[in-house]
């Protein structure tokens, strides 16, 4: 259960959604078997991918200067320090082509996706219907936390940056559209995709 809760945190990193009335329809990787490749489904791939726990930043060839400047990285002995909120880590740099796309997704990660756009839902309490991107089946619905969320969706020529940030435990619903008094699908710890491009 703990693995499911932690990996569910990755759910908001890879939103592919569209507005439909008051509810946002989202497809995402929901299960604990989500791979690194699965996190790039809303774009054409990564320009950079950071594994926070391992302290490794993978960068696409020819994009090193651009990516390090974008993350405001500072050179230190043994690597590059990147500060993200309360997280400050020194990263070792590796070529993106050495990233194992078939490995299970790390519990804490950040990335720059190409051909994707970060879209904000700034209000709290908006309902989101979550569907599994692999099976296309509905999984649960839930309401956005205080401060809202941002999510990545396909958009040619743009980039979307995300970082996993814990937002606490939220009630989810077994049925679509967050029905008032509806049956619970349990409480899950979620992390939001924060837009770093603004």
Brief overview, please?
This protein has helices at 2-8, 64-70, and strands at residues 16-20, 23-28, 45-51, 56-59, 74-76, 79-84, 87-95, 109-121, 127-132, 138-143, 149-173, 184-193. The protein is mainly β and 198 residues long. Strands 1, 2, 3, 4, 5, 6, 7, 8, 9, 10, 11 and 12 form a 12-stranded mixed β-sheet that branches.
Which key phrases capture this entry?
2 helices, twelve-stranded mixed β-sheet, 198 residues, mainly beta
Task: Describe this entry's structure for a reader.
With 198 residues, the protein is mostly beta strands. The protein contains 2 helices and 12 strands, in the order H-E-E-E-E-H-E-E-E-E-E-E-E-E. Strands 1, 2, 3, 4, 5, 6, 7, 8, 9, 10, 11 and 12 form a 12-stranded mixed beta sheet that branches. The model is unreliable at 1-21 and 194-198 (pLDDT under 50).
């Amino acid at each position: 259960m703990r693995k499911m809760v932690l990996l569910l945190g990755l759910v908001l990193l890879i939103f592919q959604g569209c507005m439909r009335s008051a509810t946002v329809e989202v497809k995402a990787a929901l299960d604990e078997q989500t791979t690194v490749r699965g996190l790039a489904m809303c774009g054409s791939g990564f320009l950079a991918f950071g594994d926070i726990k391992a302290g490794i930043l993978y960068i696409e060839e020819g994009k090193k200067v651009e990516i390090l400047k974008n993350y405001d990285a500072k050179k230190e002995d043994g690597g590059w320090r990147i500060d993200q909120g309360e997280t400050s880590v020194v990263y070792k740099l590796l070529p993106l082509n050495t990233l194992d796309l078939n490995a299970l997704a790390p519990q804490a990660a950040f990335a720059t996706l190409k051909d994707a756009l970060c879209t904000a839902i700034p209000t709290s309490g908006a309902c989101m219907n979550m569907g599994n991107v692999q099976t296309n089946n509905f999984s649960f619905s839930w309401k956005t936390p205080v401060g809202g969320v941002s999510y990545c969706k396909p958009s040619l020529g743009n980039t979307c940056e995300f970082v996993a940030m814990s937002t606490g435990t939220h009630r989810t619903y077994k049925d679509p559209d967050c029905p008032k008094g509806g049956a619970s699908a349990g409480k899950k710890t979620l992390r939001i995709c924060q837009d770093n491009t603004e």
